[in-house]
Amino acid sequence: MARPAVFRSCLHEVVSVFMICLAQFLAQGGVLMALSTKNIILHSFNDPNFDHSQAVWFMGSFALTVGTFILISGKIGDVFGLKLVFVVGWVWVSLLSIVTGFSYYSKSVIFFIICRALQGIGFALILPCGMGILGTLYPNGERKNIAFGCVGASGPSGAFFGAFMAAVIAQLAWWPWVFWIMGIAAAICAVVSYWVIPLELTNKDGSTRDKLKRVDTYGSLTGVAGLILLNFVWTQGPVVGWGTAYIIILLVVSLALTGIFFYLEVKVIEMPLLPAGVFNRKIGLCLLCLGLGWGSFGIWQYYYWSLLLDLRHYTPIHAGLTYLTFCIMGIIAALSCGFIMSRTSPSYIISFASIAFMCGCIMLSITPVDQSFFRISFGQLFILVWGMDLSFPAASLILSDNLPIEQQGMAGSLVTTVTNFSVSLILGISSTAEIEVFRRTGNTLSSYRAALYLGIGVSGLGVLCSFVFIYQHLRESKQLKEEKMGEIEQEDPLRPTIDKNDLNEVKP
């Protein structure tokens, strides 16, 4: 397939796609940079009022804001222009990453967590607009599949470099430089993106006031507030106790806001945040499989690092090096993912990815603490990386192909919302199992495994849903084939039919 006309040269195309890949690369690195260094950061603050079980917020706060604010950023990108919001997102990440580094001087872990959450808002602007840019620039075909595959494969590579480089800097130098370097990199990305992303993606239609009217304000407020409160309750509830008054109140408020959000989207608002095309069985099953798979991955990821740092007592650099397998397999996936997607139905890819997520949780749950890394720990990385590499681009492709071009930002928004919010929400739920088991047994390993058993259940449910997704795909394919045969017969009703017996009687 020929190169899209908006690109002036092959180099222009490569650099543009590379900038989208960097968004996914740095987003995954942003999650891991505070996970591989969590013990160093906690020790530097030395806050006696901070419960170490709340360290889940180091990763959860970032994933929470990425997952919730993405819900509205895709719509904002469609209204104000995908390129404009993409560049603004890089600027936001640059500024807040620098502020996060300076949070060291506050001597408050809570302020650091708040800065991490604000940092995630920038990636919430970048990620869906990046996927929307690809969906707009490329028509359906093999070239588009390869581009989406490269973006999906950037995640594992970013996870390795984010974890390893953060560990090196924090262990050998000073941890604030981890975030300052991220800020410098984001500033460079903002400048390069401004110059290389095609101008066609800057929306100049209508005044600012007209554009604001097209943004679903009420849906945005209720949706984001409901999701944030729901996630906060599930993460904070097991720490302070589910009987705490403010936890009960916030749970009720979050459920009410979420219900109001869906009512407004379906019944009231003329230009809703979620387009009508989203509310169908195919997209619903796809997003459900994606959310369950990535939710279990969030559990695996947090307790994998907890096992290495807290039970095996690896140094951050040593633990970061173990993610090298993710990087290598990510490169392999980058070379094969586009090929696989162009020759296999996305429903089969989603199912295979769901199985990979489940296998990763199962293997970590049975990993002995004193076992060599090059046995179960090493093997699970080979399997789990395919869950990440295949599920994200496959789901992005399904939504991109099933939504109109003016809603490509929303397509990228939904996929990234589901992946990041499910990581944060289900990780918070798993901490309930961890804390309750630890209170009863006092055994750290047993509490970690209790959380992983929940991850197995979540990923197993995702596998079952993926089988339903395959059945739905086969059923739709059969119906389409029958409809085409009916159209052919209606177009030429007098066309003679040939019986197989007649063909056998014909001799050369």
Provide a compact summary of the structure:
The chain has 508 residues and is mainly alpha-helical. The protein has 18 helices and no strands. Helix 1 (10-33) packs antiparallel against helix 7 and helix 11 runs antiparallel to helix 17.
Topology, please?
Elements: H1 10-33, H2 38-45, H3 56-80, H4 82-102, H5 109-137, H6 142-172, H7 176-196, H8 208-214, H9 217-240, H10 245-268, H11 281-311, H12 316-321, H13 324-343, H14 346-365, H15 376-402, H16 408-441, H17 444-491, H18 500-505
Textual characterization of the structure:
- The chain is mostly helical and 508 residues long.
- The protein folds into two domains: 10-203 and 211-216 and 271-479, MFS general substrate transporter like domains (Growth Hormone, Chain: A), CATH 1.20.1250.20; 217-270, no CATH class.
- The protein contains 18 helices and no strands.
- The protein has helices at residues 10-33, 38-45, 56-80, 82-102, 109-137, 142-172, 176-196, 208-214, 217-240, 245-268, 281-311, 316-321, 324-343, 346-365, 376-402, 408-441, 444-491, 500-505.
- Helix 1 (10-33) runs antiparallel to helix 5 (109-137), helix 6 (142-172) runs antiparallel to helix 13 and helix 11 (281-311) packs parallel to helix 14.
- The radius of gyration is 24 Å and the shape is globular.
- It starts with 9 loop residues before the first helix and ends with a helix.
Question: What are its keywords?
Answer:
Growth Hormone, Chain: A; 2 domains; single chain; 508 residues; 18 helices; 80% helix; globular; mainly alpha
